[in-house]
Every structure is written in structure tokens, then in C-alpha cells.
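Forgive a beginner's question, but would it be possible to get any protein sequence you like and the C-alpha cells describing how it folds?
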Amino acid sequence: MDATKKPLRIPPSFGVYAEEHGIFDMYKRLLCQLIINKPTEPIQYVIDWLKRDNNPVPKIAVVGPPASGKSGISKVLSNTINSVHITSDVLLDDELSDAANAAKKLMSSSQSVPNNLWVDMIGERLKRKDCLRRGFVLEGFPENREQSILLQAQGIMYTHLVVLDAPNTVLIERQAGKRIDPTTGDVYHTTFDWPQDPTIQARLLVPQGISDDETRAKLNDYNRNIDGVLATYPTIHKLINADQPKADVLAQTFTFINTQERTEAPHTPIVLIGPTGSGKSCIAQRLAAKYKIVDVSCGTLIREQVANGTKLGEALREYVDDDQRVPNPLATKVVSDRLMQLDASTRGWVLHGYPLTRDQAENLSDAGLKPNRTYFLDIPDDCVIERLCYRLTDPISGERYHTLYNPPRSTDVKQRCQQNPKDSEDAVRQLLNEYHSYAEDITDYYSEEGALRINADQDPQTVFEYIESTLVNPLPTKLG
């Protein structure tokens, strides 16, 4: 950035750099901490905060009814992502916590622990260095809406709320077979998870409070309160069916915690790659219309340069007139000049028709115009032939028809319709062969960048909605 030139312009590469390194989300976290902590010296607080290791850490809560598997899921989760596993026993055993000591006194006299005391214990524990650096998996909290609101009032915000769910009959059956190892604290089940070691079998104990009546009372209490909890965290919770094998529950849980909440960061640069007839232009137009990003078609840019008679257009004219492929340096120059204009660098862009080869993809990256979302639109050649080779145009009205899907309405119109020479089967197959000759190299290049493949042989709205779902949400993380 040249500070001597006014007005200042942020380089197009900054947006890619900012999302890649989480700059937008870092500012969001910093602003949240300022609002929550309200420091008397905000500038010094910001400086100190930036000096610390402030990478985002998982802040996960796992809740569910009795016997839903909270303990097992939470334990595996915390071990896999190397986060702190916090349970009610951990909170009560904290000798440094005044709130924990007060709670134990209440429990020793058979009194219930109030919600504010539980929240104080949670708040004190989550402020320790291990939770701040590694994140946490909080098991069994919040139990009700009041706890949820008190946690939020203390500035404790979860990134994910895992809610395990199963029918009451299944949970009652599970609860009746539960056994506890008093030495390790591990939970076993007489039917589903019985230990093989006879020594462990001999020391297992039947826990208190697992009779049918007691379990039903706990389930009724849980069902009364869970809706209030979910209403407090409407966008970050996910219901997971616990009445399935543990491996499946874990797989769904890991998939959920690897997602990130929708960000307010600007829309990122997009590249659509696919053979002719795959629908790149259609999808690009819809994305541009909905999200106000710039629709950049390489072919259209080249024709505009030629039509405007620019110096670059004169260099391109002979290739356009002879219907030859434009050399990489010229194509890269046309595309990079457009993507560096103010509207594209500030609003974002969706590029199609370029890059076609690995060399062009590398040139785009070297120019500081690396995309953050790359989509391959896959479609069989026969479907492309069907889409393109049956198109007709009425030379009088300009209306476009398709022999199979939208035939001319009258015989007169049908007789005067003509086919664009570029839609002949030979011309289309030549374009398809050219695409396939470069497809493997460019696929390998963008696969390393996390490109997504989409079946383009379906309704355009379906393809658009899938691309939209991956565009508006941040890229998944790799926690587990």
C-alpha cells in the first residue's frame, strides 16, 4: 500500500490474507472482550490482549438427559481435541474456589445448590490458564434457562452446544444397567459396555438414583428445562440422536464442532471451474445478484477489450478472430486488471472461464488474487451435449429455445430458428476435450487448497443453494 497516494486503497490480496489468518474474527473476539471486561484502560488492554496467544479455542458444552452418554462423549471429545474436561465433580473438588466450598456445605446438609453458585464455580474454573489456552468441554451445563442467562451475563459464550437426545424408554433401560468403577470413575453398562477384566467386574458398584421412578423424575425435570436452554442458544446448538452406536454419535459430534459460526467478514473471492455447459455463468450471475459481488467472465472481458479497441484488445484481436486460445500472459493480464479494480477489491468477485490450466492458476495466485473458495462443477459429457447442441435462436425476436426442454411454439418460428455454429456437436466436443486435457493438473492444484466438487447435472437452483451454503459459512476447522 502506497501511503503517499490518496485515497488509500487496500490491496486485493489483503482480503484473502485476512480470512486465511482469521483477522476479521480476531477483531470480533477483541471487540467482545472489550465489551465484556470493560477495562479502564482500553488501549493498554488491546495491546496486552494482542501480545497474548489469542487463537480461537473450542468452548463446547455437552448436555442431555440422564443416561444419554454425556460423560462418554465429553471424555472422548476432550481427549481428542486436547481440551479441558469439566464436570460437576471437577467443579466441586476445586479447593481454591470459595463457591465450591459453599456448594459442598449446602450439599452436606441435603440442600440444593442454587444456579448462581453453579455459575460462579463455572466462571472461576474457566478463567484458569488451561481453559484459556486449550479450551474446554463442559459436561451437563447449563441445566436450565436461568443458568444459561447467568453464564452469558458473565461473558461465558460457547462456540458449540451439543444436545444429546433419545426416547425416554431407551434412557430408562440404559440407566437401570449403569455401573460405576469406584477406582477410576469410569461408567459401564451391564448390556452395552461390560468390562472384560474380571477384576474390574468385581469392583463395579450400582450408583444411587437409577431406579425407574427416580430416572423418570430426572427426565421430567430435564424435559421441562431443555427448551429454555435451546432458546438461549438458538444458533449454536445441534440435536444429536443418542440412540445409535457410540461411534456414530461421536462422528456426528465431531462434524458439528468442526463447523464455525457464520461470520460478518466480507464475501471472499470465488472461482468456478467446469467444462462448457456446466452452468458456471448461471451460478455466477445468481451469486453476483444476491451478494452484490462482481461477476467476472474471462471470455466477456476479452471480447470487451477487442470491442473497445484498446491496446490490449488489439493484441487479442487476432486470437479472437481466428477462434484460437488466448496465450496465458494476455489472459492473465486481462483478468488481473479487472480483479484489481476498486469494485472487485472492495465487494469481492466470482470468476469463471479462468483459470483453465495449472499455469493460469499459479499466475492468478502470484498476482495476489488467490481465491478462498474454489468449486468444480462436474457434469458428464453427454449431459453437456444435450444442454448445448439442442439450443436454437430465433433471428427475428432473439428468443432462445431448446429442442427438448423449450421447443418453439409454432411451425413458423421453428422453421426460422438457427443454431449457433459454436453449439455444433463437433465444436462442443472439441471444447470438452480441451477441458479434460487440463482438468487433472488444475484439480490437483486446487485440491490442496480445499476445493469443493459439485454435481452440476441437476437443477441450477440446487447447485446454487449448495454453493451458497458453503460460501456464507466459514471453512470448517480440524479439531478432531
DSSP finds 23 helices and 14 strands in the chain. The chain has a mean pLDDT of 88. Residues 1-56 form one domain. Residues 163 and 239 are 5 Å apart (CA to CA).
